[in-house]
Amino acid sequence: MSSSTVAPRVSPELRAAIYHFAVFGSTGVSSVYFGIWLANRGIGPDEIGIINAAPLLLMLLLNQLVGRIADRMPDWRGVIIVLSLIAGAVPIGLFFVSGFWGILLVWVLSIMPAFALVPVVDAATLRMTQRRGTDFSTVRAWGTVGFMVTTFISGPLIAWLGDGAFVPLFVAFALLRALLAFQLPQFRAGEGQTKSATKGARRLREVLKPWFLLTLAGVAILYSTHAVISAFGALLWKEQGISEGLIGPLVATMAAAEAVMMFVWSRLKLRVSARHLILFACLVAAFRWTAMAFSPPVWVLFCLQMLHSVTFAMGYLGGIYFLANWTSDEIAAEAQGFSYVLQQAMSVLIILGMGWLVAAFGPMAWLFVGAFSVLGALCVALSLKLQPKSAHAVAPDEIVASDPTP
Predict the structure, then answer these.
(1) How far apart are CA 189 and CA 181, in angstroms?
(2) DSSP class of residue 399?
(3) Rounded CA gap, 96 and 112, in Å?
(4) In which residue ranges of the chain is pLDDT below 70?
């Protein structure tokens, strides 16, 4: 199905929202049960850390290249479709492997293309909504809704059907994501759009200054602390005595909080610096992860999960608009890919380290994650201090909640 065959009444924003739903829905399934599924197969915390970190490590070599290729294509849509097809077919191999090495191989080949398409679709959707005068955060919110729905359903469903239901459920969502990629719109010049030049750097090296890189480092640190939830959250909560039936709702709660923030963002009518938004998110994250270390009761965990609206949603919006403000369409996917490389590098470090820390300290390992969040805040604060005043002439650093385009 090509985008031209979709009924005109289905807007480009709706088609992009549907795809985002499927992309993050697939992530939701793995977030709830993958760590437990691995542990049930005799794979220890250190090996779980390796399996979760390996795709991130390999993507360090490929992510920016994928973004560069996507930017040079007539439209970002083609690259997204190819990556979706690969990420949909490879997970079928999970039916035929067992043991650490077999699972590691299939998981890496499944997750790499799934990770690679995210910065491309983020950059493509943001630029499309900016041209059309619509709201990116509302479109992206449907990805969070997809994550929320699958996490809320998959936990109880797997608890009811048994351990063997995880792989079929994960594969089903991977194939659905591949199918829905074909209904995506043309992002560069689809209906209701006109090609237009955008302000900002046309080459990545034009903005790779210390103050710019420090902000991306802060975003990367903040992002990486959330990767711990996917890799170890369910496992640590189970060890704390929380039932598998509650783990899904716990993960879904943070997704719901994120979705609410995405949906209401354009209605807040705030004028806020992108970097101050990231800084605030880092500080709230430090509190959130530190509180996790003390194995709080379930009701407190639900409250902490609601802080995801700040620690992830606000931090994510701050980061993506910071990049969009300072770069042009010509390097949109490449710049976003570069940011993702940093995020993945930090995620590799913290996931590998967390595997050892969990084995040594159990839930108290969250204290290290909290300290890492403080480091992210310091990076952003230093960026604000180091930026030359003359750089303000290049592009603004302010985003406006009611109209977040630069």
Answers:
(1) 17
(2) E
(3) 19
(4) 1-9, 189-202, 389-406
Rg of the Cα atoms in the chain: 20
Domain assignment of residue 2, yes or no: no
Count of alpha carbons within 13 Å of 270, Cβ hemisphere only? 14
- The C-alpha atoms of residue 81 and residue 132 are separated, in whole angstroms, by 23
Whole-number Å distance between alpha carbons of 27 and 20: 11
Residues 323 and 338: their CA atoms lie apart, in Å, by 10
Evaluate whether 347 touches 224 at the Cβ level (below 8 Å): yes
Tell me the one-letter amino acid at 71: D
Residue with structure tokens 């977030």?
A: 31
10's CB contacts (< 8 A; 6+ apart) are none
From the list 19, 24, 34, the residue with the least C-alpha distance to 148 is 24
Residue 396 lies in a domain: yes
| Residues forming beta bridges with residue 271, ordered by sequence position | 400
pTM, rounded to two decimals: 0.78
pLDDT tens string 366-401: 999 999 999 999 999 999 998 876 555 445 565 644
Residue 256 domain-assigned (yes or no): yes
In Å, the largest CA–CA distance within the chain is 61
User: What is the extent of the structural domain holding 178?
Assistant: 8-187+201-400
Q: Which residues is 398 bridged to in the sheet?
A: 273
Q: How many residues does the chain have?
A: 406
**C-alpha closest to that of 45 among 269, 233, 310:** 233
Total domains in the chain come to 1
Distance of CA 295 to the CA centre of its chain: 26
CATH code for the domain of 136: 1.20.1250.20
Bridge partner list, 273: 398
On whether the CB atoms of residues 153 and 30 are closer than 8 A, the answer is no
The residue type of 96 is: F
Per DSSP, the three-state class of 365 is helix
